[in-house]
Amino acid sequence: MLIPYTWLRSYVDSELSPDVLAERLTMAGLEVDRVVYGKANLATGELDTWDGIVTAEIVWLEPIKGSDHLNATRVTTGDGKELSVVCGAPNIRLHDRVPLATLGAKVGGITIAEKKKMGVLSQGMLCSPRELGLSDDHSGIYILPPDTPLGVPLAQIVGEPVIDLDIKAHRGDLFCVTGVAREVSAFTGKELHLPQTALREKGTAANKLMKLEVRDADLCPRYTARVVRGVKIGPSPQWLAERLILAGMRPINNVVDVTNYVMLELGQPLHAFDYDKVADHTIIVRRADPGETLTTLDSVTRQLTPEMLLITDPAGPNVIAGIFGGERVEVDDNTTNLILEAAHFKPTNVRRTSVTLGLRTESSGRFEKNPDIELTAIAIDRAAHLITELAGGEVARGRLDFYPEPVTPREIPFLPSQVEWLTGMTVTRNECIENLQGLGFGVRDGGEGADEALLVTVPTWRGDVEESADLVEEVARIAGFDRIPSTIPVGPLPEPLPDDWFAREDRIRDILVGAGLTEILTYSLTNRLTMAKLLRGADAGEELLLTAPVTGADERDTGNATNGAITTTAASTRALERRQIEAIAERLPAITLRNPLSTELDSLRLTLMSGLLNTIRENSKHEDTGLWLFELGRRYLPTPELADGTGGAQERRTLGIALAGPLAHTWLGDDRDADFYDLKGIAETLLDGLMVARYRFVPAQHPTFHPGRCARLEVAMISDEAAGQSAGATPAEVIWKTVAVLGEVHPEVADRFDLSERTYLLEMDLERLFSVVPEVVKHAAIPRYPAAQRDLAVLVAADAPAAEVSETIQAGGGALVRDVRLFDVYTGEGVPEGKKSLAFALTYQAPDRTLTDQEIEKTQAAILSALRQRFGAKLRG
Amino acid sequence: MATELSEQELALADVRQRAVADLEQIGTTEDLEEWRTRYFGRERGEVSAILKGLGKLPPEQRKAVGQAANALKAELEGLMEARGQELRAAERLAALDRERLDVTLPGRRAARGHIHPISQTIRDISRIFRLMGFQTLDGPEVETDYYNFQALNIPVDHPARDMQDTFWVVPGQILLRTQTSNNQIRIMEQVRPPVRAIVPGKVYRHEAIDASHEAMFHQVEGILVDETCTMSDLRGVVTRFAREMFGANRKVRFRPSYFPFTEPSAEFDIDCIVCDGKGCRVCKYSGWLEMGGSGMVDPRVLRGVGYDPTIYRGFAFGLGIERIAMLRYGIDEIRLFSGNDLRFLRQFT
Lengths: 877, 349
What we know:
The structure holds 2 protein chains of 2 kinds.
Chain A: E1 2-4, H1 5-9, H2 18-27, E2 31-41, E3 46-48, E4 53-63, E5 71-76, E6 83-87, E7 97-101, E8 106-107, E9 110-111, E10 115-117, E11 120-122, E12 125-126, H3 154-158, E13 160-166, H4 177-188, E14 201-205, H5 206-209, E15 211-214, E16 222-229, H6 238-246, H7 254-266, E17 270-274, E18 282-287, E19 293-295, E20 301-303, E21 309-313, E22 316-320, E23 324-325, E24 338-344, H8 347-357, H9 362-367, H10 375-391, E25 394-397, E26 400-402, E27 411-414, H11 417-423, H12 429-438, E28 442-445, E29 454-457, H13 468-479, H14 501-514, E30 518-519, E31 525-526, H15 528-532, H16 558-563, H17 570-587, E32 603-604, H18 609-620, E33 627-637, H19 640-643, E34 650-660, H20 676-689, E35 695-699, E36 705-718, H21 720-725, E37 734-745, H22 747-752, E38 759-765, H23 766-770, E39 788-797, H24 802-813, E40 817-826, E41 835-844, H25 853-871, E42 874-875
Parallel strand pairs in A: 14-25, 15-18, 30-33
Antiparallel strand pairs in A: 1-13, 2-3, 2-13, 4-5, 4-7, 5-6, 7-12, 8-9, 10-11, 16-24, 16-25, 16-26, 17-24, 18-21, 19-20, 21-22, 22-23, 27-29, 28-29, 31-32, 33-34, 34-38, 35-36, 36-37, 37-38, 39-41, 39-42, 40-41
Helix pairs in contact in A: 4-12, 6-7, 7-10, 11-13, 12-13, 24-25
Chain B: H1 7-25, H2 29-40, H3 46-53, H4 59-98, H5 117-131, E1 135-136, E2 142-144, H6 145-148, E3 168-170, E4 174-176, H7 182-190, E5 195-204, E6 216-226, H8 231-246, E7 252-259, E8 262-271, E9 288-297, H9 299-304, E10 313-320, H10 321-329, H11 336-339, H12 342-345
Parallel strand pairs in B: 1-5
Antiparallel strand pairs in B: 2-4, 3-4, 5-6, 6-10, 7-8, 8-9, 9-10
Helix pairs in contact in B: 1-4, 2-4, 5-8, 5-10
């Protein structure tokens, strides 16, 4: 909202300078974006602000040899530097102060650039009044008074200040100069002078000249009209045109300009119709008929719906109420008789229509912010008066005023002590009364409760003030928020949190950063195709993206399909693969936005994997180490509530990890590309760090991963029944729950993501994980009796899972075996084909005694026997 | 007689002279051992031989020669010890010198990654508010129109909706939250006062992405409700926050503003951390940086969640996390946060 400073000052006696006023307005809650300086240019209808043109002094001047008129000058803007400028004007003298267009400034449509004239550098341009649009004078440079400050934008010297306010939506009363003036009056205590109208009516009564019919009063609670006859359309006088331009509007003709002027002055949008073009001189306010259209002044034909309100006449629609006019009944140069309209339309309806049509106008912006319904009569009188002053003619007697339910001003009981109760600042009862009265509120003793109670009448333009807290704000902001003290709350603290997810995620973050991983944060928005690229295989889809891996995955992969083709070219394979990805993408249960910014970001992610892989690829273009990344974020799964609009998504807190290449290059020769066991080790480190007692990795199949290098991470849950019975659950009562899938990215998937290196990926569901993370770890006594070490190397089948061998050792050894650690896996010389040697270090220890050799040997034998039975294992000699 | 030296005495003098001379030539502890054997060896050591020969001397000479021989033994042993110490020190030094490392070679670093600057900022914010008794909570991002707008006193068709362009999942019903303020309602619905919580998280706006605008960014919402707090406590809390985050002497300015869900409402600014309030490009020459919005929880909002606004008072505030991180780290391009370029991420802790 642009408020010209001098126009504002015409309503309030404030002596504050533009900058101080801007500061005071901001501190009263009317945020000033900036103070603009400019001059209304009547020729262009625009505000000249002369960006880049500043005041400068000529400090050196010499004619250029070989030129009959060019001078070389050096000028300064007072910053201690000098610029070389070539100038051809005859009137400049040493020490003249002049407007300097600096490099990049625009003068007469030309952008000033550095150039050479007659071999002399010119780093700017000195301007004439005509070049500046100040007058037609082009006889020489515009010479400024000798006391002009240097380095100041020219606009501040020759322009007028305009305060650019960011008015918030609830203050419909502030979208006009008088509204802002009222605020200034309130916080300065200076008197407010509202414009006075001395309207003289003549001749026939207006209601004999026209008819008014409001059919939809719910959308039009008030409609006021006047008739003005015998006007002469012409240009507005300079003072009015300048004010309009300063406020950002373009002058059109005296009648239209008056309606705009009164809108800017009082906040009431007005409309002028050509009386003689309105069919039957009858205004009908009604909802649009289905299928009705209106060609608006911008020559666009608008499709209307019955939710939209129209100003019509018996011949059809004329105006989309409160928003935009049509061509048929507009005022033109030959208009002599007018119907003036000042109405109040239902704000939400104006807003909805305006949003639907994508039409925002000065008028609709004001109507949707609920202007004062009492204003229509005041504004129409003001406009009729100004029109007769500027365009001649006479105002017909009387107003037509449809206003079936006049509003009664709201009354609010108010305790001045509420100001301190809510804000902590002390304000006296008298100050409350003064501040409220200054804003136009009526205040008298009364209300309920204490003696101090007041009864406050809310002016009709303050629809935003509904109750006591709103009055507290009014009192406090006029008093000044800088009077609010600064204290620390002393109230009681809330109960501790049961699930502190913030702390949980922070623990994970610390562990992973300590393991060398770097945290990334990708968009939660992605698209289905990107996610579908993770899924190999024609039948993959749906649940496959979720953390839970799918065993017995679909084997009819793309290979089989392409083998059937007669000619298999790389291109046709790609085309086929593309179709398969698209088919999967369609089936993904991703939540999709109805109004995405782009198709790239139209769906919420179902997985963190694609974001991780994309980040690996982008970074691999310039990094060859440290592509060890993780992300903590949510996956968004659909729910039935979401589908019917009653609830949100299932937002699963998730950890994703991706590794590719070496963690770092060193001179020590220990560089190594990431492999499966790095990833698994990180998972193990994490689980150990979170004190997860029992977990295991199980070979798995998943459409994203290498079939032989994929595992499911399971944690042991104690079943409810078992947990209820005793602390130590037996293995039979353990339920293994999948919390993560991890593995090497399948080469086909890697190709789709343009990954150049083997990449390892993990996705973990944190809500499942934290169901087994203990709140606190119980201490166990340090063993008092010595431990004994025994090694055990056995030959087993090459494909026997080491974890199962280890579990068998633990189970066979029972309570005496405290620890089983695999320390060597060997195939090759001395080991038969199809076999491998696994060497374990066993730690024997009992809590209550020193174990004897006999006990240990007996246990070793039992272990070996169990291994023999289960794996056909042989002791390796 | 007294001036005439005995044969033995001459022999002792000779041994001494040679032993001392030899000792001076010795360069290693091994040679020293050889020297010891030569003079003190049980079998063939020269000093040992003299001592052994004492018995054969006439008794009148035995005492004098014996004393002289023992004195020589003690002297030579003393010299040997001293020489031995010197040699061992020199040899240790030489051995250590052979182990000399180039200490300027890079160390064998323990693996250490980097926390994303947004996470780090949230962590710091959370720590500061924890000092003041605030818990850190979270809430849903896919949200109903009710929690994101209506319960916050922003009915359908309210012009305030223009301030927050919305991504819709189900138009008019389900959206991506445009502000973390949705959690004000969710928290107050779940617990009775006292409430002291902050809620950091992602928010979404349907806005064109450029150097200072993202369609997804982070906010932190704070809320405190009890029977005693006032706007001065709000001011104290945000002032403390600003000083913990941006330096002990920061000035905080409160300006009246408008949010549909607070009354009175205030925006708070801090004096520019770049120019200390003198005016610069970062603060657009105003001397102030906008920090966030705040206010006393609107009585309509309190009633909506079943809190009696004549008993309970509350305040709420919201901060932009990217903005805080950009100011702290001197970042002028918001897209760096979602760009995940390691050259950027490695610059942080």
